[in-house]
Amino acid sequence: MQDELIMGCHLSSSKGYEAMARTAESIKANTFAFFTRNPRGGAAKAIDPEDIARFEIACEQIGMGPIVAHGSYTINPCSAIESVREFALQALTDDLARMEFTPGQLFNMHPGSHTGQGVEAGIEQIAETLNQVITPEQTTTVLLETMSGKGSEVGGTFEQLAAIRERIDHPEKVGVCLDTCHVWDAGYDIVNDLDGVLDEFDRVIGLEHLRALHINDSLNDCGAHKDRHARIGEGKIGADALVAVVDHPRLRGLPCILETPNELPGYAKEIAFFRKNYR
Ligand SMILES: [Zn+2]
Q: What is the model's pTM?
């Protein structure tokens, strides 16, 4: 299993877990991502234990790799507004409780935007919130996503992500998800110096903490700090460089999630493309 490409895309969770697994299967995906709640609103649907039981069977049949849930964009643990931080705390607590219905999976989140408080304060508040919601008993690994550094985003450098991890009481429960579009937009040249970028990731964070990849092309130049995803081969990173990421000896075995602007047929095509180019 380890030697098979683990790839999937973002799917709608509106019909439940079994439906996501079967949709993944239909496009030859063996992982997927989904929002744990409406990405813009707050409410989360109740989890149906029977749906979870059927989901587990489907995963077994499909040979599903780790799945990568995505926290809502409205979660911002380092907003200057107290009620926003309060919501982040409640939503993360609830999301992590829900994640335990599917044990041992990954929960990815954007670290947060400091909204003028400064990066240092942002890092402190993010770590403080995570320390309130992460328990030593949980089976879920929380992933901090590499960000493009647009606006007041925290996580636009490997150093910032490392600084958050250093403040975590149970750091074994916190890893990193590398988004190719975001790191490119943040100024890491994965086209001309992928090995150098991975060396730097290893030096600053430790490659053993890299647990998932978001595979996206970018509409912008390296260092643009913009964050606009493009379909594979239709952006400034290009298909060859993205194949080099997916197929890199140091990254093999990590779940790869496409967040490209596509419907299912487009995702199926991109998954087939990467499978064909996976040695
Ligand atoms: Zn992403």
A: 0.96
